[in-house]
Amino acid sequence: QVQLGESGGGLAQTGGSLRLSCAASERTFSTYVLGWFRQAPGKEREFVASISWNGGSTIYANSVKGRFTISRDNAKNTVYLQMTSLKPEDTAVYYCAAGRFLRLGPSTVSYWGQGTQVTVSS
User: Do 47 and 60 contact (CB within 8 A), yes or no?
Assistant: First the structure.
């Protein structure tokens, strides 16, 4: 079955760092745009970052630009989100996503991961 599985979430201090990983079960994901969304309790799921299939293009939400870095390793069918300078407002469940468009949105995502919790304490 086609699956996306996130890992790397946890607890961090303000100003700290975490690296999230998302491994795809099928090599066909090497042709997909991959990205990350996040959702805090009571809030809508919001876009965080995306990366083109060859890694040549990236998009970041303004809220994370300059702090988060998305990358991918197609040989491992894996996408990463390196998060630095973490803030309490980064606290959310982070979801890996795959789609066909670089500008990913909830309506254009083809596959979702199950999510991993990131908590940033003040």
Answer: no
